[in-house]
Description:
Radius of gyration: 12 Å
Helix content: 40-55%
Strand content: 5-15%
Strand order of the largest sheet: 1-2
Distance between the termini: 19 Å
Number of domains: 1
CATH superfamily: Winged helix-like DNA-binding domain superfamily/Winged helix DNA-binding domain
CATH class: Mainly Alpha
Largest sheet: 2 strands, parallel
Order of helices and strands: HEHHEHEEH
Number of strands: 4
Structural class: mainly alpha
Oligomer: single chain
Amino acid sequence: MKEKVYEFLTTIPKGKVVTYSQIAEYLGNKKLARVVGNILHNNPDKDKYPCYKVVDRNGNLSKHFAFGGIEKQKEKLEEDGIIVENYKVDLVKYKYDKF
């Protein structure tokens, strides 16, 4: 399962985000969103697997982003051209709808 989560991360284009539940749905069970979060928290390679592109179902950034906290996640998203306001992204504008 871990490999599939990390593989999914590599498909997210620059300037787009996905939600934990989107990844869980890709795995076949939308209820696995928390499991996805745990997998992402143990990401073995932050450069190869861009977990900063994952937000919650409301577009909120992670308070516990594993690679530098919420400020670092905000910085990385902004580097991708994503506008972050109050630690939240507009999912209508930035959500990657792969499905």
